[in-house]
Design a protein that fits this description.
2 strands, transmembrane helix, globular, two-stranded antiparallel ribbon
Length: 295
């Protein structure tokens, strides 16, 4: 018994040593910065007044919630996130179903080609779509006959232009993840449902959807969180314009903290943003977990 106990202790210490590098990286890159930002949000912290950093209780949070621009920015962010995630989910699911069907030839080739946009850096994607939407020689204006109309220069269509570029960039990952989920759906369940007279739609909604729900929950939540953090596309393609039509939370935080030199208020915006995502993620996980099935 003594030897077995000693061996277990050695194995446990070995596991701990394997986890140390990952935990250290997590602490340095995430945990410490989060605590620093939360602390900064309770201070008067202005880059133009670095000699007068002082505790100011909840003044930064009061400034955030009484700022009408924060509410409008939050609303624009929700529009972008909802539009991007919904579009890429349904397009990705449709393509995944097509690639999962046995009737499609050359599925591996199509899968590789369709996955390419996800491998392209966001900055390159932004510049590419700026040329595509260019008023004078852009292919979109040529095909749709828009003349000199600037898609990214109009408050009515600028957000739509960014959403299209984001969907083009992110949809391949959604497609691959959903495809992997579809390939794990038990065929015997489908066959049994078919014998019982189930239609294709019934098999999809009653068998396929519940079986892939864990994948759906993961990929959609990951997409929501990552799109709340989208900065590169907006900063490069529109800069938050025109007339602040595409100013989202990341840009607003950047403007407040670095263009406006108010690090305290910028940190408070980041904390509000973090709290919202934590609450949303918790509720989202609980709601979708009730839709999952075990097999």
């Amino acid at each position: 018994m003594g030897e077995i106990t000693r061996k277990k202790k050695k194995i446990n210490w070995f596991m701990v040593m394997l986890l140390v590098p990952a935990l250290a990286m997590l602490t340095v890159t995430i945990i410490i910065p989060v605590f620093v930002v939360v602390g900064m949000s309770f201070f008067h912290y202005n880059l133009l007044d670095m000699g007068n950093i002082r505790w100011n209780n909840f003044s930064n949070y009061k400034a955030v919630f009484t700022d009408s621009e924060f509410i409008r920015t939050f609303g624009r962010t929700l529009v972008y996130v909802c539009g991007t995630v919904i579009a890429q989910f349904f397009i990705g699911l449709g393509v995944a179903l097509l690639l999962n069907s046995g009737s499609l030839r050359g599925r591996k080739v199509f899968r590789s080609l369709l996955f390419l946009p996800w491998t392209i850096p966001s900055l390159v994607v932004a510049v590419t779509w700026m040329f595509i939407f260019q008023p004078q020689y852009g292919i979109v204006n040529y095909l749709l006959g828009l003349g000199d109309y600037s898609v990214l220069g109009s408050p009515k269509t600028a957000m739509l232009g960014v959403i299209i570029s984001a969907v083009w960039k992110q949809m391949p990952l959604m497609m691959i993840m959903l495809l992997s989920g579809l390939q794990t759906v038990p065929e015997d369940l489908k066959e049994a449902a078919e014998i019982d007279g189930a239609t294709g739609a019934q098999k999809f909604w009653c068998i396929t959807v519940p079986c892939i729900m864990p994948v759906v929950k993961t990929v959609t939540l990951t997409s929501i969180v990552s799109n709340f953090q989208m900065f590169v596309l907006f900063f490069t393609m529109t800069g938050g314009g025109p007339v602040r039509a595409t100013t989202t939370l990341p840009l607003y935080t950047y403007e407040t903290a670095f263009s406006g030199f108010n690090l305290g208020k910028g940190a408070a915006i980041g904390v509000c943003w973090l709290v919202f995502l934590v609450i949303f993620s918790t509720v989202y996980n609980r709601v979708l977990s009730s839709k999952e099935v075990e097999y």
